[in-house]
């Protein structure tokens, strides 16, 4: 049942577990299950993992606390939350909030296309299981019609969850899907480890070779840590606004970061050994120079080729893997759609159903435009949103928390869930860290 604030009718997560699953679900997406293993495989394996873990602690966690705190303090959508932290900067807060809404909607527009491909791959594996392989060719063949149909199906699924609200939609489905994701990951990891060649991949992933350590690798690991926690697109600000006041924000943020990092780590345990299992079965994964082949489409090329070599069991493993990917994509897409929906319901005073239909429809139209002009728009939208816009917005949010928002107000807000925080080591370090270190690190990511 939705818990309501006494002063307003704003929905909240009904439990801390529900919030953690929802926030972790937002953070756990294709960036973890697809992006992280690919980055690790392309950057020396264990060295990239080592640097990535450091960057999660140094950059992502402090920023996550900042965004959640702004959201819970504002108890409203991203625009109003930014205004509450900086009352004198009303115009800036509005521009920043609207910018975040546009960016997160554009990310969802290309994200839904990729998620549609995953649905096609899952359906293909499922049809192979029941002996209908000849009927599934269309599902995995790149084409405008196929991309449009699968994208619309995925967006309708996302809209259905968000339409049900915070507790009955996002929280309910996140608390179901995230445990299922962990179970599927566990089963898949155990199976892959039983296959010939997996130990070679495990060695690459866990035994560091520091000759691969370069400035470029550090920047890549920093960026991966930054993007994997949904920072800089108002998602965590919006989710923070649904938090109950007695929630310990630093502790909860640490739990979300640990789950997100844990999923990325386990994804690496699956994908890197699976690559070498594929190599053992004759699938070429590295060029003569040692460079990873098809790194951007690893999930859609190397792994299906591996599954094909496994016979009937390969179809089962493929179906489980792509179901896992769909769950990761869905838990992220519902958080992305919630950001503009929450803003529309509060700023435009329209019902949640109308907001979901309106904004979901706009995202579908934007996705359709990308699909029909794929070569021109897909890469451009990905780079514009994730490479440029997201770091800039995150940097501006950090500057608000570090330099503009009154420190006593921040302390008072955090004390509601952590009364002794003023005496803690966290409070002695975090305000200055967010003020100075986080902006410098993010500028390094951006300019690199």
UniProtKB/TrEMBL annotation:
Transmembrane segments: 45-70, 91-119, 148-165, 177-194, 217-242, 254-278, 313-334, 355-381, 387-405, 425-447
InterPro entries reported in the protein's UniProt record: Na/ntran_symport, SNS_sf, YocR/YhdH-like
Keywords annotated in UniProt: Membrane, Transmembrane, Transmembrane helix, Transport
Topology term for the membrane: Multi-pass membrane protein
GO cellular component, one term: membrane
Coiled coil: none
Family matches, as PROSITE patterns: NA_NEUROTRAN_SYMP_3
Keyword match RNA-binding: no
Subcellular location: Membrane
Name recorded for this polypeptide: Sodium-dependent transporter
Organism: Vibrio eleionomae
Species classification: Bacteria, Pseudomonadati, Pseudomonadota, Gammaproteobacteria, Vibrionales
């Amino acid at each position: 049942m939705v818990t309501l604030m006494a002063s307003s009718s704003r929905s909240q997560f009904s439990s801390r577990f529900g919030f953690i699953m929802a926030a972790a679900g937002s953070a756990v997406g294709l960036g973890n299950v697809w992006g992280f293993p690919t980055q690790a495989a392309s950057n020396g394996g264990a060295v990239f993992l080592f640097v990535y873990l450091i960057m999660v602690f140094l950059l992502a966690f402090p920023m996550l606390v900042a965004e959640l705190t702004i959201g819970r303090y504002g108890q409203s959508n991203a625009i109003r939350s930014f205004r509450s932290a900086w009352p004198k900067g009303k115009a800036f807060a509005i521009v920043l909030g609207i910018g975040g809404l546009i960016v997160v909607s554009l990310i969802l527009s290309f994200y839904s296309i990729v998620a549609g491909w995953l649905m096609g791959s899952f359906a293909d594996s499922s049809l192979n299981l029941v002996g209908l392989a000849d009927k599934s060719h269309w599902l995995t063949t790149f084409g405008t019609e196929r991309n449009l149909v699968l994208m619309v199906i995925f967006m309708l699924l996302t809209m259905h969850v968000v339409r049900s609200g915070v507790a009955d939609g996002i929280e309910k489905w996140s608390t179901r899907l995230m445990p299922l994701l962990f179970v599927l990951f566990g089963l898949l990891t155990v199976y892959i480890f039983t296959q010939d060649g997996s130990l070679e991949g495990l060695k690459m992933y866990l035994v560091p070779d520091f000759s691969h350590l370069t400035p470029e690798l550090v920047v890549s690991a920093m960026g991966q840590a930054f993007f994997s926690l949904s920072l800089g697109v108002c998602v965590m600000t919006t989710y923070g606004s649904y938090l109950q006041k007695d929630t310990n924000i630093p502790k909860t943020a640490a739990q979300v970061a640990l789950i997100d990092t844990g999923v990325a780590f386990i994804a690496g345990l699956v994908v890197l050994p699976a690559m070498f299992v594929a190599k053992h079965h004759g699938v070429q994964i590295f060029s003569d120079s040692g460079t990873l082949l098809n790194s951007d489409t690893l999930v859609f090329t190397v792994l299906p080729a591996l599954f094909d070599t496994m016979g009937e069991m390969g179809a089962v493993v493929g179906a489980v893997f792509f179901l896992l990917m769909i769950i990761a994509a869905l838990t992220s897409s519902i958080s992305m759609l919630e950001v503009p929906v929450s803003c529309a319901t509060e700023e435009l005073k329209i019902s949640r159903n109308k907001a979901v239909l309106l904004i979901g429809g706009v995202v579908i139209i934007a996705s359709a435009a990308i699909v029909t002009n794929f070569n021109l728009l897909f890469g451009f939208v990905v780079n514009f949103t994730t490479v440029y816009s997201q770091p800039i917005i995150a940097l501006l949010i950090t500057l608000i928390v570090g330099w503009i928002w009154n420190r006593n107000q921040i302390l008072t807000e955090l004390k509601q869930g952590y009364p002794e925080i003023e005496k803690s080591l966290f409070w002695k370090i975090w305000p200055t860290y967010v003020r100075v270190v986080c902006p410098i690190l993010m500028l390094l990511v951006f300019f690199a």
